[in-house]
Amino acid sequence: MATHTTILPILLFFILSSSSILCSSLDQAHLMVLQTLNNVTDHASLLSFKSYITNDPHNALSGWNTSSSFCTWKGVTCNSTTQRVVAIDLSNLDLQGSITPRVGNLSFLQALYLQNNSFRGNIPSEVGNLYRLHTLNLNTNLLQGSIPSSIGLCSSLTALDLSSNRLEGVIPSQLAGLSKIRNLSVGDNHLTGTIPPSLGNLSFMENLILFKNSIRGALPSELGQLHKLLKLQVGQNNITGEIPSSIFNLSSLVELGLASNLISGSLPTNLFSTLHELNTLFVGGNALVGSIPASLSNASMLQRLDLGYNSFSGQIPHLGNLPRIQILSLQYNQLINSGRGGMDFVKSLSNSTQLQVFSVAGNRLTGMLPSSIGNLSSQLSLMVFAENELEGSIPEEIGNLNGLTLLSLEYNAFSGSFPDSIGKIPNLQQVFADGNMFDRSIPESLGNLSLLFHVSLSQNNFTGRIPSSLGNCKSLTMLDLSVNNLSGDIPKEILNIPSFAQVLNLSWNSLSGSVPAEIGTMKAISQIDLSANRLTGSIPDSIGSCDNLQYLSMRNNLLEGPIPNSQFSW
């Protein structure tokens, strides 16, 4: 009896152990079957993806075949344990075709990178099945149709980039279901409709990029709830109304881009105090009014500011505490600088050692440019004072601006001589000074500027001869000296510049002598205007060698003889 008592527990243990082992084996077998089925699904989905590619110029997918494991295929990443596809990166491969709907069967997919290709057609709604997906990047393709509302079901998504495609329709309100989203970019498409207020509930949002669409309506005040927002770009749309005050409470905001819309109202005085991290503010090309916020004086983090093409009025504030500013555009407003110290804003920019672009064109500025203009940043590349009411001479100190590539002074009331020091600016490429009252000779020092390609000094009172030194400007393509009081011959030197491909306009002066035969060496020139001078002699036959000439005027001179019978079509 004792023996049976001893054996029973042993038998029971054996039975239970065997049962457990059997169950475990069955579970493992079941898992292996499921894994095999899932791997077959992934394999089939990838082959379907390849079948939707119509052109693979770099043979990137040539290895996508049954002779090797799909986990080794180019651009495919698998989980090392499950052997399921977790990432596909086929970016920058110039692929053409469309996206297979079977991409939605890759149920373990976490990242899909297809940017910088030429995918066409619609984004398949099956993408909404990818609940593990955290990154979807389809930017810079040719995708059409609407944004699938099903994307809002991708609850793990943190980055969605559909920018630079041809997408149409509205921004789906279902995107508010992307509770983990940090980066949402649908810029540079053809989207219409309004911005869904529900996007304001996406509390993790850091970058919201909607620029260059046809989005209309007002900015939702709910966007002011995005307290982690760093970048808000809604430029180049049809946004109307005022900027919600809640936007100006986003203390983390680094970049605010609202340019080229229909936004009205004014900017709050304390804007740069509340948005103290702001390094970029683009609101140019709207209908904003009022004064430039006084707090601009203390915007120490600001790097890029565009307030141009609005209706801002009043004085330009002190700009002395903008140590990081690189781009400063206040152009085409109604700004003034009256009273004592009217040009102090220019002097104060001497502290902005990183300044590269400065434009105050198209305002109501008066007075003279201060000599301290020569103390501006050595990095200053573009300086624009055009279309104001500035007067007096240009300070010789302007020659200290070694980094200058463009100087725009046109349509003011500047007078006297054009500074000889301009020849000391080695990188200068474009000079615009039309429509002033300069009444001395054109400086010979312009010939020192080997990179100069555009010179426009028309509608002044320049006297003397055209500097032959301009022939040293071997990059010159455009020279307009029309409507002045220039005299003497046309310098042969400027006709021997092989790069001269656009315009030579010397009309409405008092030039004399004959038209040099060297004019025929200007084989690339498209327009020549020598009208309204005192040129004599005949039109040289060599003019027929100007193969690209589209416009020629020599009227109102003292020329005689026949029109040359040449290949030029008169």
From TrEMBL:
Topology class, membrane = Single-pass membrane protein
Q: Where is the Leucine-rich repeat-containing N-terminal plant-type domain?
A: 42-79
Determine if Transmembrane helix is one of this entry's keywords.
no
Q: Name a GO CC annotation attached to this entry.
A: plasma membrane
| Keywords on record | ATP-binding, Cell membrane, Glycoprotein, Leucine-rich repeat, Membrane, Nucleotide-binding, Receptor, Repeat, Signal
Kindly indicate where the leader peptide sits in this chain: 1-23
Q: Is Membrane tagged as a keyword? A: yes
Q: Name one GO molecular function term.
A: ATP binding
By its UniProt entry, which Pfam families does this protein fall under? LRR_1, LRR_8, LRRNT_2
By its UniProt entry, which InterPro entries does this protein fall under?
Answer: Leu-rich_rpt (IPR001611), LRR_dom_sf (IPR032675), LRR_N_plant-typ (IPR013210), Plant_RL_S/T_kinase (IPR051716)
Compartments in which it is found: Cell membrane; Membrane
Which ranges of the sequence are coiled-coil? none
What is this protein identified as? Leucine-rich repeat-containing N-terminal plant-type domain-containing protein
Organism from which the protein derives: Nymphaea colorata (pocket water lily)
Query: What taxonomic ancestry is recorded?
Result: Eukaryota, Viridiplantae, Streptophyta, Embryophyta, Tracheophyta
